[in-house]
Input
Amino acid sequence: MIQRGDAQRLSQVQDATVLSVRPVVVEGTQSGIGATAGGIAGGVAGSSVGGRREAVVVGVLGAVAGAVVGNAVERMGTREAAVEVLVQLRNGERRAIVQAKGNETLAAGDAVILVSTGGKTRVTKAPAVVPSSSKS
Output
């Protein structure tokens, strides 16, 4: 998928060959939303337990536990399967790019192109080159 901000921008394209591909996991985000939601839910649930004093103590403990669990759920829910692609450019330089797994399967030896836009680079299979017909 192309980001809206990348539309109608000139991208640099480099030819390369895949040396290796390995699966990796991109760590999930911690925006605080999971912890906040968990803390509220835990605090509300805990405050309904027992008498007034117990409700305050259990409410605080519920809020803390809910925040911890909510944060973990957010991190796990936003993890992403990805691949690290090691490529060799035509000039001999090597580059490693981590990108979302996607639908395209890359393997060692594949001819690929590196498309760089705004500091971000993605790897995709090189399009087939159609020889131009020469007219005599």
